Amino acid sequence: HVRVYDLVKQELTKKLMSGAKWISSMAIHPGGDNVLTGTYDKKVQWYDLDLSTLPYQVLRYHTNAVRDVQFHKRYPLFASCGDDNNITVSHGMVYNDLLQNPLIVPVKKLSGHTKYDDFGVMTVMWHPTQPWLFSAGA
After folding, report:
1. How many Å apart are CA 2 and CA 83, to the nearest integer?
2. Which residue, 49, 70, 103, 137, shows the most beta carbons closer than 10 Å to its own?
3. SS3 letters for the chain?
4. What average pLDDT values come out for the chain (138 residues) when binned by 10 residues?
5. Which residues of 26-46 are buried (b: 16+ CB within 10 A; e: fewer)?
6. What is d(CA 69, CA 122) in angstroms, rounded to the nearest whole number?
7. pTM exceeds 0.85 for this model
């Protein structure tokens, strides 16, 4: 589970139900109302905090454990990486209109890392101003 705390009120505000055994990583959208989680059971889950405590969408783009998920701070992009040696870059558009759901479209699958002792791509990170993606592997 993912727990969201309000530190001013000192209370638990939300508990997101993932249904996953192990969550490996989390990322918060720059707008603050959407959360990504990566899980060791090969899934990336997108949560809309205004909509529900259940995942808005479950993305199954990886064939092994997902190690990291990251949103870009400026562009409507997010990336996930995992032990399948792949990085998936996706377009994730969040609209200001609360009645319109986020648009999530996979853009590109990047490969090039090699596996070492069953470990693949361990982390990804976006450049703060450019649409550049950095990755590190085992």
Report:
1. 22
2. 70
3. CEEEEECCCCEEEEEECCCCCCEEEEEECCCCCEEEEEECCCCEEEEECCCCCCCCEEECCCCCCEEEEEECCCCCEEEEEECCCEEEEEEEECCCCCCCCCEEEEEEEEECCCCECCECEEEEEECCCCCCEEEEEC
4. 93 92 94 94 94 93 95 95 94 84 90 84 94 91
5. bbebeeeebbbbbbbbbbbbb
6. 10
7. yes
Tokens for 102, please give them.
Answer: 């986020």
Tokens 């959208």 correspond to 29
Residue type, 98: L
Two tokens, residue 72: 């870009």
Place of tokens 């139900």: 17
Residue 7 tokens read as 């530190």
